Amino acid sequence: MGLPVLLLGWMLLAGVASAEPLRVTAVLDGDTLELEDGRRVRLAGIEAAKPPRSAAPADGRVWPLAEAATRALSDLALGRRVVVHGPAPVDRHGRLLAHLVREDGLWLQSAMLVRGLARVHTRPDARAYAAELLAGEDAARNAGRGMWRSRVYAVRDAGDPEELARDRDGFQLAEGVVLAVSKTGGEAWLDFGADWRSDLTVHIGRAAMREVSRAGIDPLSFEGRRVRVRGWITLRNGPMIEITHPEQIETLEREAVRNAAVAPTPEGEEDWEEDEEE
């Protein structure tokens, strides 16, 4: 875990030595690009800094981190040959969800994460290398790089339901101590406050519970522990995050060990400081 992005990229590349490298002909934003065969690829497992969904497409507002993410991916990938690694499902927009490794072994996902221009956003069908991706995110966040200097992307306090309610319909990270866990009917609820009717609740439904169990995790083990959870905020008796796969929840006790092994930002890379608008 926490291998430098180039070394891990070579390891991924070694597993697909027969795949044909393809040139990147366009970069659309910080996590989407186009290959010479016409396919569009959404970088699996991450989400780059972007304008919020509520932003008007032509309102004239500037989103410095979104622009920085697009420039960074262009610098890393445009005109370069890459290999599509591992399974590459097609999303609802017709794009491949894939990990991309440059011919020289650089892993694009991890390169964006360690620069602080993307955060980990796994999906049930795009969960590969989550631990390594999280290590890159941790390195950038602990160093205060890029988006981790912005209040827009700051990790939310799981014990502050009013703040979380303001993030309704947004993808967020929240940290806090799980005060209580209940399991019934093949589901589980993690409560971060004394009143489940108003405080943050993390819900693990039946399908997700099967995945959590396969990962060897008992939700009851989260009680009394500090965790970080990521997902979309909805309102249902207070703010709620729905868990669809186990990689959405991290216990933080091992964080120091993971961070110690992560490579620093590559020499010469810019450290983006701009703060996004609300």
TrEMBL record:
The keyword GTP-binding does not apply. Residues 18-150 form the TNase-like domain. Residues 267-278 have a biased composition (Acidic residues). Keywords: Endonuclease, Hydrolase, Nuclease, Signal. PROSITE patterns: TNASE_3 (PS50830). It comes from the Bacteria. Residues 259-278 are annotated as: Disordered. GO terms for molecular function: endonuclease activity; hydrolase activity. Residues 1-19 form the signal peptide. This is Thermonuclease family protein. The lineage of its organism: Bacteria, Pseudomonadati, Pseudomonadota, Alphaproteobacteria, Rhodospirillales.
